Amino acid sequence: MPRTKGDHEARRRDVSAAVWQIMATRGFTGLTLRAVAAELGATTGLLTHYFPTKQALVEYALDLLEQRTITRPRREAGAGLAAFRAALLDILPLTPESTDSNRIWVSSWDAALSDPHLSSAYARKYARSRDRLSEQVAAAQELGELPPGDPEHIAAAAQSFVLGLVVQALFAPEAFPPGRQIALLDDYLAGPTARTLSGSGGTIRPTAHE
Q1: Neighbours of 76 (CB within 10 A)
Q2: Is residue 31 a contact partner of residue 54, using CB atoms and an 8 Å limit?
Q3: How many other β-carbons are positioned within 10 Å of the β-carbon of residue 144?
Q4: Using DSSP, how many helices (H) and how many strands (E) does the chain show?
Q5: Which candidate, 37, 61, 137, 189, has a CA 20 to 30 Å from the CA of 159?
Q6: Within 10 Å of residue 158's Cβ, how many Cβ atoms?
Q7: Alpha-carbon span 94 to 116, nearest angstrom
């Protein structure tokens, strides 16, 4: 009996789930055709129908990770500083799901650094993220919530801070639980916010930790 398109799509969903499970539990370095086949209870021969090479599997895994990152729920926020803070919080490993995603991203850096094609793709990904953050910084500056300055520079500094915090939280989750990550981010944002409020003669209102 010939396979239908629905059978093919169902099998592809099964493959996607297996790839995701391997990456979440073993990291990116544990992603092999043999591991995915074992997770599926299938043979590596079946997997080569979808991924003729390890490189094809790696590229598919990264596409899957990117799709899941883009489509995951985001915090609702207004404009300006609130939106900037929400975007930074969305990067942090504050939930089991975001922790899995961050573990996979960080474990994939080694593969990306050793592959010029992937390195370029990652550079573009982080540049797009900085562009979005820059827009939020510029909006906050227009509202008087952040001091004047180059929005791209401020966004790059914030992105660097948050990515560093991601790594700390992944390696030492007991030392950097969600509450402390949020507190550290709020302390970081309080620096430029305080300078703006001080310059305008306002008072500083601490942000409530989540």
Answers
A1: 8
A2: no
A3: 15
A4: 9, 0
A5: 61
A6: 24
A7: 31
Q: How far apart are the first and last CA of the chain?
A: 55
User: 62: closest CA among 19, 124, 120?
Assistant: 19
Q: Which helix (H) or strand (E) holds 84?
A: helix 81-91
Which tokens sit at 131?
A: 């562009």
The conformation of residue 28, written as its DSSP 8-state character, comes to G
The residue to which tokens 């001080």 are assigned:
198
Angle between helices 116-142 and 151-171 (to 10 degrees): 120
Please report, for residues 6, 31, 55, 66, the alpha-carbon distance to residue 60 in angstroms, rounded to integers and kept in the order given.
20, 11, 9, 10
Distance in angstroms (rounded) separating the CA atoms of residues 82 and 73? 17
| Residue carrying structure tokens 């660097």 | 160
CA distances from 207 to 48, 122, 194 (A): 52, 32, 12
How far is the CA of 42 from the CAs of 14, 45, 126, 166, in angstroms? 11, 8, 36, 35
From the first residue on, what is the mean pLDDT of each consecutive set of 10 residues in the chain (210 residues)? 56 81 83 89 85 81 77 74 94 92 87 86 92 95 93 96 97 97 95 54 42
Taking only Cα atoms into account, the Rg of the chain, rounded to an integer number of angstroms, comes to: 21
In single-letter form, the type of residue at position 20 comes to: W
What does the alpha-carbon distance between residue 184 and residue 179 come to, in Å, rounded to a whole number?
9
